[in-house]
Amino acid sequence: MGHLDHAALGWLTPALSYAMACVGAALGLRCTVRARDTTGRSRRNWLLTAASAIGTGIWTMHFVAMLGFGVTGTDIRYDVPLTVLSLVVAMAVVGVGVFVVGHGMDRPRSLLIGGLTTGVGVASMHYLGMAALRLHGEIRFDPVLVVLSVAIAVVAATAALWAALNIHSPAAVALASLVMGAAVSSMHYTGMFAVHVQVSPSGTGLPGATAMQFVFPLAVGLGSYLFVTAAFVALSPTAEERAAYASAGRLTEPDERAVDVAPPGFRAPRPVRAPTR
Fold it and tell me: How far apart are CA 55 and CA 195, in angstroms?
């Protein structure tokens, strides 16, 4: 049985992965709040941004944490197509859950369906990412911990979507994001503690890419996307702010209709000419 190290780089990877989960959650919640205040194409665009943010944040959290994962007695490689598929699944299934909540008229039902869909999507992303692992040995999972990790994912997703429906102030969204980041990290490490590896030493090379060759550059790129998008969302005005700007503009704009308007029957006095000599 190989010894598993979940923090080979110390506290750097757990702390950074938690930060990625919080940023993705905060951005997704803010975009969902914005979507609820709009209609039509604008709502769709905000929901798409929310789905990509939450999915990207969860995926980045998982693989940043995996940068610190090691097994004694074997190297680790990642299957590139499966790793990319896990990212696509994360964004697609989270997107379904976000759109269900964003467009649903029956809030309790939409919340349950959206939370279940999103939670299963998060768990699917995690275990697809684990299926992408290539090492010298056999990977087994503790079924009890696997079920527990899926349950944590569903509860965390439902709580996040509830926050998107009911919490609007930036401070409350920030607090909800910290809680969701902790829940997503708990789901990840619960799933990782379910892993057992029976190492079979071998001198043959492993297929796939190393974490630093593939996962690290992709995680950096997605993390940059999160921070840039977060800055854009933070700087873009809300519906209330746009309404306030428009109202202020109407109050300060001069009334052009009042120019050159005189009461009925009014005659302007004739200009006085200077006497000629």
Answer: 23
Q: Which two structure tokens, joined as six digits, stand for 239? A: 């519906």
Quick one: pLDDT at residue 142? 93
Task: For 139-203, give the DSSP string.
Answer: EEE-HHHHHHHHHHHHHHHHHHHHHHHH--SHHHHHHHHHHHHHHHHHHHHHHHHTEEEEE----
Sign of the Cα torsion 196, 198, 203, 206 reads negative
Q: What is the pLDDT of residues 4-24, one digit of tens each?
A: 877 777 888 889 889 988 888
Question: Closest by alpha carbon to 146, among 163, 166, 131, 168?
Answer: 131
All structural domains of the chain with their residue ranges: 4-238
Q: Which two tokens stand for residue 167?
A: 């919490």
What is the distance of C-alpha 226 from the center of its chain? 8
